Amino acid sequence: MSCWCAKQIIPRTSSVSTSWRKQESKFEGIELGDKILELLESKVKSEPQRIGHFIDLAHYYFVNDRMDEAVKMFVLAEDITRVPLNFDGPGFAGKDKMSPDEIALEQRLRREDESRLIKEIDKHRSFANKDTRGFRMKLREAETTPAKAT
Predict the structure, then answer these.
(1) Model pTM?
(2) Domain for residue 139, yes or no?
(3) What is the DSSP letter of 94?
(4) What is the pLDDT tens value at each position of the chain, 150 positions in all?
(5) 58 lies in some domain
(6) What's the total number of domains in the chain?
(7) Phi-psi region for residue 65, left (φ > 0), alpha (ψ -120 to 50) or beta?
């Protein structure tokens, strides 16, 4: 089964206007990957306690063959799981400004992200159609090397 694409909707012999092709030219010179990377990095900086942002950035690095950075993000995410949420810390308005429901929601999201992290790391160890030997080696090395004091 082939994937869905514009060619299947608008056959070449169609008399449909092709003005959409001209619109595409507005985006020449813009690297979409750079915009995605900027967004992911800004999320990590603005909400450094949210594990999901680190997972998403790690995945972006992984699919773009930036294995060192992918491993670093996964390891940072694992480190964050060991630290309780600080509602007075970065990414939050302050515990006194949050309702009990908001706090409960953030705690639930943290548990879901912790569960997702384990699954994502396992998925990336044997990612379909990608040679993951280098990733696995770097991850194993990062997991067995004691953290350096900073």
Answers:
(1) 0.75
(2) yes
(3) -
(4) 444 444 444 444 444 444 444 444 455 666 676 889 999 999 999 999 999 999 999 999 999 999 999 999 999 999 999 999 999 999 999 999 999 999 999 999 999 999 999 999 999 999 998 999 999 999 999 888 866 544
(5) yes
(6) 1
(7) left
Residue 123 maps to a domain: yes
Amino acid at 120: E
Q: Which domain holds residue 126?
A: 29-144
Does some domain include residue 72?
Answer: yes
Burial label for 150, CB within 10 Å (0-12, 13-18, 19+), is exposed
**Rounded Cα distance, 19 and 95, in Å:** 52
CB 53 within 8 A of CB 44: yes
Amino acid residing at 23: Q
